[in-house]
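I hope you will forgive my troubling you with a question about protein structure. I should value your view on which stretches of the chain appear to form regular backbone elements. Here, with my thanks, is the record as I have it:
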Amino acid sequence: MKKLSIIDIANHLNVSKTTISFILNGRAEEKRIGKELVERVQKFVEEVGYKPNSLAKSLRTGKSNIIGLMVEDISNPFFSAIARLIEDRAYKNGYKIIYCSTDNDTLKTRELINMFRDRHVDGYIIAPPQGIEDDINSLLKDGMPVVLFDRHLPNVNADFVEIDNLFSTYNATKHLIQQGYKNIAFITFASGQTQMQARLQGYHEALNESGYKPVVQEIIFNQNEDLIIAPITNFLKKNKKLDAVFFGTNHVGTCGLKVINGLGIKVPSDLAVVSFDDYDVFKLFSPPVTAIAQPIEAIADSVITVLLNKLNTSSQHISSQSIILKTDFNIRESSKTATS
């Protein structure tokens, strides 16, 4: 069955399409349209099940009241918690969110940006992979509000919200050193992204200051967990002298804990453990795992506040902001003193 348009309704009821439009948009009273006509239109619309075309409406009004939210992986607890908080704040401000996962894939991200453009979303919140600089610059050039979070792109002059990654890993590595650990490995995803590079740098700086040798294992990100677990297993089997391990993300951390359990490694007597991105699994592990906690609520709040300000301001020439937030370091049993 052909989808009805406002013109079809107008022709059927022998009423002007402008009048129909006013009635459907709740402006009948303002335009002094008779109650009887309003009821006749509403009854007919109900009978035929007419649904307004939101895309046509957005072209007419210039607003879709939709925000596109692109994260690395919506199933990751860090991203899903942030997405949920952003959605709540957006909804209270009259916006709905469409979210999707980029898998850190440049081509997929480009296609998703084009899909959002076609849907005429009002603004973009993106945790960007590398290689997407031209696409985001093109959005900015067209006056689209864009806020990056979790990491930024050095050649893109967009607002971004992230945490102090370098200090966070520096501080946590120093904690392990102060506890008497000397052979500390850093296991992370292989990535040129700003946040991952900063985490690696913080680890290196802390070890260099103490004159200890860095031991880094970079793993290629894969949706298949077995392809993350296998290289961690090989690495821990090969590096028997390690006395501590620092996991660079919660995903690497949970895979690492599975390996540690599987190999029968005792924490912290055989191996101390620290991870980035605190969440419930780390608190429930035996013993509970020391972890860096990102301020999820503050990140979500900053991101949506910056975007709403952009959406509600006619001027596109507000200079872009860089918001850097502090983390919490939650010390637990997994990183207790080497000698205790």
